[in-house]
Every structure is written in structure tokens, then in C-alpha cells.
Write a structure and sequence with these properties.
234 residues; mainly alpha
Amino acid sequence: MTMFAYKEESSMSAMQQIKASRESFRNGKKLYNQGAYEDSLAEFRRAVRLQEVVFGKYHKETIRSYLEQGKAALKLAGGSEEEEDLILTSLKSFQRATRMANVSFQKALNRDMWKDIETNWYDVHPETDLSLGTLSEIFALEDLGDKAIKRHQYVKAIEHYCGALSLQDALVGKDSLDGADIRYKLGSALLKTSATPQAQETLQLAYKCYVDQVGKDHPATMGCVSKIKTISAS
């Protein structure tokens, strides 16, 4: 995205952002159906960028844009010089869609989404590919961490979040929004055990990723800043 385009989007009102995101989603679907996957991906990226701010990550339109972004990246990856980067984009997009849908969608819709992801993934990859299985493991470990937090079992939560991040970083690297979300949770759990230096380092990593991916004004970024400030104030 050009700096001009970024400034233009930043100056939009909320209603303009909503309208533009929906227009990009429609354009992306049309271009995808025409086989114009590169242009389709660009439209879905714009839709996601706008929707993360104006709707938030849990909104059904944001989730569906992430899903379609992943599918477009996957189609474009085959034979491309940027194949590895596009595969990573698809995995990150599918993970984002699935994690958020787990909160926002009913179980039947979640199952349908996962089947759609599997169908698209295995159209390109052999059945022996373990990437989607690894995503499922990450989901499971994060869920165990969340449950441990609710029971105030912070050491167990730390173990589960660390396990999720180990798989996360190996699969898609350290620059994904979902990885930042898990790091934020890990940092918060570390604070509960008075592991302040480790918590601060972990939260700083999450903050850097949020800034790089969605900017300083995104709710996730600002929430991370607030958490870091509690450390400085203590």
C-alpha cells in the first residue's frame, strides 16, 4: 500500500471506512471468481485493513474478509516467485478467521468455515501436509491457556501459551497478529506470577507486531500500551 493510500484511508470517517471495506470485499469476490487472484488479494487486504479498525477483529465481516484473503493468497501462490510469502499469508489469514470465528460464530458455522479452508488448502497441498494440523494444535493450546487463566492457574497458562507460541513461530514466524494476541496473553500471565522482566519483554514483542501490522491507533495496540504502562507504574 502506498503512503498516499494509507493517509487517505486514515482520513476517512467511520461510515466511509465501512462503505469502502464492503466495496473492496465485493470487488475481491468478483475478481476471485474471474481468476484475477492478484487483484482480488489486494482488495481483500484493503477490506481487512479497514475492517480491523472500524469493525474490530471479531466482526463477521472482518472474519469473512480474512477467510477470502487466505483463499486468494493460496490461489495466487502456485508457481509464483512469492509462493512462500503467499502461503504464509494464507495460513495467517485462515488462522485469524478461525480464531475470531470461534468467539463470534456458532459451532456449525465454524465447522463449515474449517471445511472450506481444508478444501482450499488440500487442493494445493498433499494430504500429508501438517500445516492445518499445527494450526489446530495452536488453537487447542491457546484454549487450555485461556481456561487455566479463568481458574487462576497462571503457571499452567504460561506453559500452554509458550507451547502455542513455539508452534506459532515455527509455522508462520513472529510477525502475525494472532501470535501477538497470544504473546499479550502470555505477558499478562507472566505479570500475575511477578515475572516482570519477562512480561515486559513479551509485551514489547506483541506491541511491535501490532504497530507493524495494524498501526498505533488500533485497539489491540493501545491495549498493549496500557498493559506495559502498568509495569512502568509499578
